[in-house]
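Worked example 2:
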Amino acid sequence: MSTPHVVVVMGVAGTGKTTIGPLLAARLGVPYAEGDDFHPQANIAKMSACVPLDDDDRWPWLDAIGTWAHERAGLGGVVSCSALKRSYRDRLRAEAPGVVFVHLSGDRALIEDRMAHRQGHFMPTALLDSQFATLQPLQADEAGVAVDVAGSPEEITRRAVEALSGIPESAA
C-alpha cells in the first residue's frame, strides 16, 4: 500500500480487536489507537454493569475515533472500534472518509470461549448476544474486508494484511 490507509479493526466483543489491532499496526508500520480508550467513563460504567450502550452513548465515542482517524489521513493508522452498525461506520466515514474496515468475524462459540478466558476487560460475556444482534456486516459498497478469527493472532494478522493489500487506494 503506497499511501497508508487508516484501518478500523471492527467486530463484536471478543473477536480480538485489541490483540490484532496492534499487530496489524506493527506490520503496516503505523500507530495503533485502542478504541476503548475513546469511551467516556459513563459508557465503561454501563458496560461493566451489563447494560448495553445505546446510540446516544455511542455518538461521542464514534466522533472521537473519527477525529483520530481524520488526523491520521494520508499518514496511516489502525484503531479498534466495534463499528457494529452501518450507521456507526457511516458516522466514522463522515469524519474520516478514507477509512478502511477490517471486520474480524468468526464462530460465536469460539468468540464466547475467548471472552470467558480473557482477564481484566470490562465487557462481560453476557453482552455477547446483544453484540451479535446489533451486528450489520460490511456491505459491498463499504471499503473493507472480512477476516476470520480462527487461528493464532499471527495467522489472523497475516490474513488481514493480505486482504488489505487487495483494496485499491481509490476504494478508501
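The first strand starts at residue 6 and ends at 10. The CA atoms of residues 145 and 164 lie 7 Å apart.
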